Amino acid sequence: MSTEKLWNRNFILITVGNGLLFVNFHMLVPTIAMYAASLGSSGFELGLIASIFALSAIIVRFFTDALVDRLGKKRCLFLGLTTSLVATAAYSFFPFFQGLLVARILHGFGFGLSTTFAAALAVEVIPPEHRGEGVGYFGLGNTISMGSAPAIGVAVFSAFSPVVLFSLAATASAIAIVLFRLAHVPERPVVRKEKEHIPLYNRIFEAGTFTPASTCFIFGFVYASVNTYLPLMAAEAGISYAGLFFVFGTVFVLVSRIFGGKLYDRRGPIFVMLPGVIVYAISIVMICTAHSSAYLLSASIFYGLGSGLLMPAIMTWLFNSVPPARRSNASATYYNMLDLGTFLGIILLGTLAGDMGYISIYYIVLAVMVLYILYVLWAWKSGRMVDDRVA
């Protein structure tokens, strides 16, 4: 067995750099709408600014193959990071809707490239026998920043001028660039037949990854219901301190990473995926029946453990389903499926909530979770939950 260590210099640099990439993103998620509103943007314009970022990130990932062919993974990563940095700085220089919209589109392009290739480079420095564990720890930067950066962003925006907020977010991107530059990752040559045609559906999800990609899509749908509508559900149910749900949840995401990745590496995806979807389903049951702050915070324990097990397991499964030269495409598949599922969940559940109320939509989410459990069992029993780990 290989004795190569997981926590090597390159892995630490890439993991911290990825965390700062998400600090930039999460600081601006709540504040960019606040900034646009302060400029006098209409409700429609606020919705457009919020949605155009995710759409542009999805679109740019369709061109992963062409970009890798011409630039290689590392140059694609730095193109994305530099674009994110420039777009973040541009928010300050164009204080009107049209300029903000263009900057938001550019930021989406940069974020789409950065997240895709940061993950693709991370898996290159993770020893194959530690891949599940390594991918779990790699994603901790996103988890920690999700729990802290939005609050920091709102506090900075409320206390200082927007220029200070954007400067702080840009600084996170700049430091991320430096850290990724210091990491030494071998560039694998791209082997492809000349004039190879790639079908449209394989630009959405990489060939051979339909089963893990579909589990990622379903997860994104359910994830959107909690992250977007839980505070509104709590208000409808008369439950206070709903914001603490995400703080507690983040703690238990961290707990899950201690054992989830190691379990994946030793036993395979089903031993993480099945407990993950069951625990996640328990959290949805508790959200549906929540009647007090204490009960809702108890649900966050299962929410944190479930999402903490599922997200890195799905990403590892995707990486292990493709040849090494196709890992950037597997990374693009992961983020595209997650974003598409999230986008559909926000739109569909938000529309239904207008007629049914926010508590009722979680019963629909619970039905989806039951189907999710059955789908994971089917994938395992049918032999589709394979894990062909390649160095």
TrEMBL record:
Intracellular or extracellular location(s): Cell membrane
Record InterPro entries: MFS (IPR011701), MFS_dom (IPR020846), MFS_Exporter (IPR052714), MFS_trans_sf (IPR036259), Sugar_transporter_CS (IPR005829)
Lineage: Bacteria, Bacillati, Bacillota, Negativicutes, Veillonellales
Source organism of this protein record: Megasphaera hominis
Transmembrane segments: 12-37, 43-64, 76-94, 100-123, 135-157, 163-183, 204-226, 238-259, 271-295, 301-322, 334-353, 359-380
Keywords noted in UniProt: Membrane, Transmembrane, Transmembrane helix, Transport
PROSITE patterns: MFS (PS50850), SUGAR_TRANSPORT_2 (PS00217)
Membrane topology: Multi-pass membrane protein
Segments forming domain Major facilitator superfamily (MFS) profile: 10-384
Entry keyword annotation includes Transmembrane helix: yes
Major site of localization recorded for this protein: membrane
Identification of the protein by name: MFS transporter
